[in-house]
Specification:
By secondary structure, the protein is α/β, with parallel strands linked by helices. The protein has 30 helices and 27 strands. The strands form six sheets. The chain has an eight-stranded mixed sheet, sandwiched between helices. A hairpin with a 2-residue loop joins strand 20 and strand 21.
Length: about 800
């Protein structure tokens, strides 16, 4: 019997609410994408995955009569909806997904309700909330009986899991990526080819300039300003200066770095601190402060201490947040003044308001032994921008009231007045003349991912609001007695703070760092500043352009914008800009390697560091295949004895565990991790992992986060160009690209290979594309043909330019002798 019309309508409205939830969650993504980028990001697939997944759950709920199962299914359903809603709110402010660590910190915020209230003023979030409530009501009323919906249910489950495989658990898929990223850990080590790769970090030449030592023996006061963007310096709103005190400071005894950019990763404010004080890039996937608090660091703080300075950090918030209490000891601060020391201050937003905080901090500075180094972090100008109109000199236009844009302007105006009062109190306390004050922003306040922000900023600026506007932050070094102020146009970033400030302080920066002294860089330098989580990896900003890499790492798909006009351009400079991108990525990878391996002290102490030095070999041993029933440990010893140091092993994934034995070999199965542990006992032996097209991201997570030491002996084989970005994200070893089934033209594949670092290229006999191989040979890239076990085939392929082979039966010496014949 057909369902009644009323029930059918309820079911239909329930389905519409599901797609409404997904559409509202992905709205910002779709709003700024064209058709080609939809394909690149798999975002259309991701948009469909969420409602399909929820629909699958509703099928289960409708067709079970066990109350315990019903309650469990309902619990899972509600959890997913809460996850979707909380991520939408978090993305509203931070353009990122929640992780477990972020969620745990969110729980200790004193004004969570205020933040939620602010987010709920967004029309999108209001509609999403209404849609979710409607969906929950309809969930109980909808009826998807199995006898009527058997085909639909089977098809839905089938389509869902096929799409998961096709999309590779795309980063925008809330049900997959958000849940899995919720439990993030550590990532793996970099893959090195040169033994002297770390030597370049030592004994850098110290170049003096006219500012060397001008602030020697003076107190150093560093103020990190929350969410302060440089685009508002020297600007007015409603006929009022937005930042009058900072504007005045720029023109009086100061160096102002006009093109200074934030480079934070997922650690936001904590990353800004880490980059600034240590001149290292942030690591991918969470904050250095959370992941590596036990490392040895040697940055600004320790160098100041070695030169007789007393060092303190000041922040009007909880000492546990961002793991600061522990991390500040590792960095080298003598004392941390957290919110425990500001109990009398007025609370606004996240913590003690800037006026009270800076006023009290000035009093604490008066009591410190001199010379001192003070690191001060403001807070009030953080979202949700909770100052009241009477706390600002800016009166908003009616159209900007109750908007993030309007409230942000009022908040940074309030911050500016707090800084002005702080400097006046330094003068009263007799500290001003003998101190230098370095002021910079930590990251953006008005995120480009929020359409409302883009609309208001575009109108305010009179040009498109782009990444250089969002990521540009002020950097001012104020030195009483300097006499002549100077504005410096050099493109630079937080990574450059350490060498620049130490040169001015006259302190020898005999440590490991990745930035440059800005005062020694030519203002017309073409260097690019990147490393931020708010642009695709490898993207950068330089003096003329914003260069955004494509997710598939194909050069032609990158986007270039003119900074002067904000217009996208098709430039014949693409190759040169892409080279800047590659050099930047190498620096980031090297920096991450030093952080993750905790190598600062070993490098400085000239200890021997064992590095991987593998190069492509003529023959790769196919270590396992479908009929293997031997002892893997014994076979490992045998193939190494035969002369192999590169092993290819197919990986199988079942029950959330990776194996090198196939499903038919359960009597003698071996997990991938156990196998890699066996291999790691051998010297200079490496493993190529094949057959991973359907679970590449899962594999990278398991290796990169949970087994970083084992990841150093792994060479991954990639089957999609889009996975190359994940190599960067998880700092996996340089990969082999399998060109067998790439859904790209030969031209696109060749361009990708020529533009990106690859260990080798592989292709199977059955998919051998002679035209493509000929093109690749001209690039002087190492090419493997798979499954060659006949000496005649080996000779044939070698004669047409093939470099190496995967083999099941040819011995290394026999293979070489065949070629010599």
């Amino acid at each position: 019997m057909l369902l009644r019309k009323v029930q059918k309508r309820i079911n239909m409205f329930y389905l519409l609410s599901l797609f409404g939830i997904s559409l509202l969650f992905y709205y910002n993504l779709f709003a700024k994408m064209n058709l080609s980028s939809l394909i690149d990001y798999n975002s259309f697939l991701s948009f469909l995955l969420t409602p399909l997944f929820l629909l699958c759950i509703s099928f289960i709920y409708s067709n079970t009569y066990d109350k315990k199962i019903k309650y469990l299914v309902l619990f899972v359903y509600i959890v997913i909806l809460v996850l979707i809603f909380s991520n939408k709110i978090y993305m509203y402010f931070f353009n990122d997904y929640l992780s477990f660590q972020r969620a745990s910190m969110f729980g200790i915020l004193p004004n969570t309700g205020s933040i939620l209230y602010d987010a709920l003023t967004s029309i999108q979030i209001i509609f999403l909330f209404i849609c979710i409530i409607t969906n929950i009501v309809l969930f109980f009323k909808s009826r998807f009986k199995l006898k009527h919906y058997r085909k639909i249910m089977i098809s839905t489950f089938g389509i869902y899991f096929i799409m998961v495989l096709v999309s590779g658990l795309a980063n925008y898929e809330i049900v997959s990526y958000s849940i899995t990223s919720f439990f993030s850990g550590s990532s793996t080590n970099i893959y090195e080819k040169k033994y002297d790769v770390y030597d370049s970090l030592k004994n850098k030449e110290i170049v003096t300039n006219e500012y060397t030592g001008v602030a020697k023996d003076k107190n150093l006061i560093i103020i990190q300003c929350e969410s302060l963007q440089s685009i508002f310096l020297n600007r007015t709103y409603n006929d009022k200066e937005i930042l009058p005190n900072l504007n005045s400071l720029i023109n009086e005894d100061s160096l102002y770095f006009k093109n200074y950019f934030t480079q934070v990763g997922w650690g936001n404010t904590s990353d800004a601190e880490f980059i600034t004080l240590n001149s290292f890039y942030p690591v991918i996937m969470e904050s250095v402060y959370s992941r590596f608090p036990k490392n040895y660091y040697r940055g600004v703080t320790k160098l100041l201490r070695e030169n007789g300075y007393y060092t303190s950090a000041f922040h009007g918030y909880l000492k546990e947040f961002w793991n600061r209490e522990i991390m500040y000891k590792a960095i080298g601060f003598d004392k941390f003044y957290s919110s425990d020391y500001y109990s009398n201050g007025k609370t606004i937003g996240w913590g003690v308001c800037d006026v009270d905080f800076l006023d009290t901090t000035a009093s604490y500075l008066k009591e410190l032994p001199v010379p001192f180094g003070a690191f001060i972090i403001t807070l009030t100008s953080h979202v949700p921008f909770d100052t009241t109109p009477d706390m600002s000199d800016i009166e908003l236009l009616s159209k900007h009231e109750n908007t993030l844009f309007g409230r942000y302007i009022q908040n940074i105006n309030y911050l500016d007045s707090a800084i002005g009062g702080f400097i006046e109190k330094l003068k009263v306390n007799g500290l001003y003349e003998n101190s230098i004050i370095a002021i910079y922003g930590d990251h953006q306040g008005l995120n480009i991912s929020v359409p409302e922000n883009v609309d208001y900023m575009t109108e305010y600026l009179g040009k498109p609001y782009l990444y250089d506007d969002m990521l540009g932050i002020p950097f001012i070094i104020h030195m009483p007695g300097l006499i002549e102020s100077k504005t410096i146009d050099t493109t630079c970033g937080q990574i450059d703070f350490l060498p620049t400030i130490l040169n001015i302080m006259g302190i020898n920066n005999d440590t490991i760092y990745f930035g440059e002294d800005i005062l020694n860089i030519a203002e017309d330098s073409d260097r690019g500043i990147g490393g931020t989580a708010f642009m695709p990896l490898g993207s950068f900003i330089n003096k003329d352009f914003i260069f955004l890499t494509s997710v598939d790492s194909i050069l032609e798909n990158s986007k270039i914008y003119l900074r002067s006009s904000g217009k996208e351009v098709k430039s014949n400079l693409t190759d040169r800009l892409y080279n800047i991108s590659k050099e930047l990525m190498e620096k980031i990878k090297l920096s991450n390697s030093v952080t993750e391996k905790n190598l600062i002290k070993p490098i400085l102490d000239n200890n021997i560091i064992a590095l991987n030095n593998v190069i492509p070999q003529f023959l790769v041993c196919n270590f396992n295949y479908d009929t293997d029933h031997y002892d893997y440990s014994e076979r490992l010893k045998s193939v190494i004895k035969d002369g192999y140091n590169l092993l290819s092993t197919k990986v199988y994934y079942r029950n959330e565990i990776f194996y090198i034995s196939n499903a038919l070999n359960v009597e003698n199965e071996m997990t991938l991790i156990d196998f890699l542990k066996e291999v790691s006992k051998q010297k200079d032996v490496y493993v190529i992992l094949t057959g991973t097209a359907d679970f590449t991201l899962d594999l990278f997570r398991i290796l990169g986060r949970e087994n970083p030491d084992l990841a150093t002996i792994v060479i991954p084989e990639l089957y999609k160009l889009e996975d190359y970005q994940n190599i960067r994200v998880f700092n996996m070893n340089t990969p082999i690209l399998c060109v067998d089934e790439l859904t790209k033209t030969n031209e696109e594949i060749v361009n990708f290979i020529s533009a990106n670092e690859l260990f080798a290229i592989s292709i199977s006999k059955r998919n051998f594309n002679s035209n493509l191989v000929k093109r690749i040979v001209t690039l002087n890239k190492f090419i493997y043909v798979k499954d060659v076990n006949d000496e005649g085939e080996l000779i044939f392929y070698t004669n047409i330019g093939i470099s190496g082979f995967y083999t099941d039966s040819l011995t290394y010496k026999k293979g070489l002798s065949s070629i010599k014949k």
